[in-house]
Write a structure and sequence with these properties.
Elements (H helix, E strand, L loop, with lengths): L3 H10 L7 H5 L9 H18 L14 H7 L1
Length: 74
């Protein structure tokens, strides 16, 4: 929903200042090639990130994380 294509489509569906839930529901979904691989990589990176973040309930030990890199990659 943050892409320029989505914003253009949402503006076409509802030209007012704000969007409603019904506008979001009408937003078409486009298939993404390798979406399962992308999800698997992001899930693994986020799990590692949460394990190194002290305020997380998943905290194990402090350490470096590839979460920001994984977000940029996806």
């Amino acid at each position: 929903m943050l892409s320029s294509i989505a914003k253009t489509i949402l503006s076409s569906l509802n030209p007012t200042v704000n969007f409603q839930v019904s506008d979001i529901k009408r937003l078409p979904l486009f298939p993404i090639e390798s979406s399962e691989e992308i999800f698997t990589q992001l899930d693994a990176a986020f799990t590692e990130y949460e394990a190194a973040r002290e305020t997380s309930i998943e905290f194990k030990k402090p350490g470096a994380s590839a979460w920001k890199y994984a977000q940029e990659w996806a």
